[in-house]
Design goal:
Length: 363
C-alpha cells in the first residue's frame, strides 16, 4: 500500500497515454481533474490486488465517448461520483474499492479523482492492460461476469440505470445514451467482489504507467534513450520513425475514427499508416501489417519521447511509433473474437507482434 500524490499523477498521465494506445480520453484533461481532486480531498491510497478482501465491493468508474469531445466538454464533479452513488443505491452496499476500467488517458485518472473525492482506495489494476473503444472489451467480460446494472451520468445532472443482458448490449445501449448526453458520459458497471477482480484483472497497471511516465519525463532531452529504456521495460518494439503527411479523422457512431499516414524518416524508408477507432488498431508499412490489435501501438513525439493521442496527431509531426505485446487474456479465442482485427472490420488475422517483428527483423 502507498499513496498517490500530485507528482504521481504527472507520471501516470504520461504512462497511461502510452498504454492507452492513443485513446482513453485526453490524459492532460484527466491529469487536471485528478490533481485537483487530490489537492482538494487528499492523496489516494493505492492497494495491490493481493490486498483486496474477498468480499470487498469493487467498482470501475469510467468515461464513455469520443476522445475528441472531452477536449471541449470537461468533466464535472457531478459526473465523477453520480454513477457510483447510484450503483450503491441499487446494490444496497457501500463501495469499498475503486478500479480503473482501462489504463489509458482519462480513464486511468478519472477513477483516481473519484477515489479522492469519496475517500476510497484504488486498486493497482485494470480490466484491459491498455485502452479499447467498446464497453464489452474488458477482461471481466472474457471471464463471464455480469455487467448489469450499468449506471450513467452526465455533467447536467442526468442519471440513468440500464439492465443489459450482457456486455455487448451494455455497449450498444450506453453508447446510444452517451451520444444523447452530448458525446460523453461517466459510467459504472461490473460491480464485483475482491475475489472476482483478483481472478480476471490485469495487475499492477497503475504502477507500470507511473514507471513509464518516470522514464519518459526524465529523458525528454534524450528521447531516444528514454524510448529505448521503456521498450526494454515493456519488451516492446520500435516500428518506425516518420512524418505525418495526412490524417483523416472524424466522429462516427460515438467514436473518433480515422487513418493516419506517415512518410518514413531517418533509417526508415517507405510509406506507413495507422488505422484507429479511438485507439490505434493496426500499423502498416505499405500493405504489410507491423502490429495488429489487441497488441498495443503508441505514437511518441520524436524530439521528447512523450505520447501523442489520436486527437492530438497533426500534419507535419515527426514521431516514433512503437508496439508492445498485449496481456495474455486477449490472446485467447474469446479475446481475439472480442478485440481482434476482424471484429473491427479488417480482413486479416491476428498475428502476435513478436512473431511479425521476428519475421521482419525488428527491434
Amino acid at each position: 500500500m502507498r499513496y498517490l500524490t500530485e507528482e504521481s499523477i504527472d507520471k501516470i498521465a504520461v504512462g497511461a497515454a502510452v498504454l492507452g494506445t492513443g485513446g482513453g480520453g485526453d490524459p492532460y484533461i484527466g491529469k487536471l481533474v485528478a490533481k485537483q481532486a487530490i489537492k482538494k480531498y487528499g492523496p489516494v491510497k493505492l492497494i495491490s490486488v493481493d490486498e483486496l478482501k474477498e468480499d470487498d465491493l469493487v467498482v470501475p468508474v469510467s468515461g464513455m465517448g469520443a476522445p475528441t469531445i472531452t477536449i471541449e466538454k470537461l468533466l464535472s464533479e457531478i459526473e465523477l461520483t453520480a454513477p457510483l452513488e447510484k450503483m450503491e443505491e441499487l446494490v444496497g452496499k457501500k463501495v469499498d474499492v475503486i478500479i480503473p476500467i482501462e489504463i489509458g488517458g482519462i480513464n486511468s485518472l478519472m477513477p483516481i479523482a473519484v477515489a479522492a473525492k469519496k475517500g476510497l482506495p484504488i486498486v493497482d489494476a485494470d480490466s484491459m492492460g491498455r485502452a479499447f473503444p467498446e464497453a464489452q472489451m474488458v477482461t471481466f467480460y472474457l471471464a463471464g461476469y455480469e455487467s448489469s446494472p450499468v449506471t450513467m451520468a452526465d455533467e447536467k445532472g442526468n442519471t440513468a440505470v440500464l439492465y443489459p443482458k450482457d456486455g455487448i448490449w451494455a455497449e450498444r445501449m450506453a453508447r446510444c445514451l452517451t451520444i444523447e448526453m452530448g458525446g460523453s458520459s461517466s459510467v459504472t458497471d461490473y460491480h464485483l467482489t475482491g475475489e472476482q477482480v483478483r481472478k480476471a484483472c490485469v495487475k499492477d497497471t497503475l504502477t507500470i504507467a507511473e514507471k513509464i511516465g518516470e522514464i519518459l519525463m526524465e529523458n525528454k532531452s534524450n528521447a531516444k534513450f528514454g524510448i529505448d529504456k521503456m521498450l526494454k521495460e515493456l519488451k516492446g518494439y520500435r516500428l518506425f520513425e516518420g512524418k505525418i503527411v495526412d490524417i483523416k479523422r472524424g466522429l462516427s457512431g460515438g467514436f473518433t475514427r480515422g487513418h493516419a499516414f506517415f512518410k518514413g524518416i531517418n533509417d526508415y524508408e517507405g510509406d506507413y499508416s495507422i488505422l484507429f477507432q479511438n485507439e490505434h488498431l493496426i500499423a502498416k508499412k505499405g500493405d504489410e501489417p507491423l502490429c495488429i490489435t489487441p497488441d498495443l501501438i503508441a505514437v511518441l513525439d520524436l524530439e521528447t519521447g512523450l505520447p501523442i493521442t489520436t486527437e492530438r496527431m497533426k500534419y507535419g509531426s515527426r514521431v516514433v511509433v512503437v508496439a508492445f505485446p498485449c496481456n495474455e487474456q486477449w490472446r485467447t479465442e474469446k479475446g481475439i473474437e472480442t478485440v481482434g482485427p476482424r471484429y473491427f472490420g479488417y480482413d486479416l488475422d491476428y498475428i502476435p507482434v513478436e512473431e511479425i517483428q521476428e519475421k521482419l527483423g525488428g527491434k
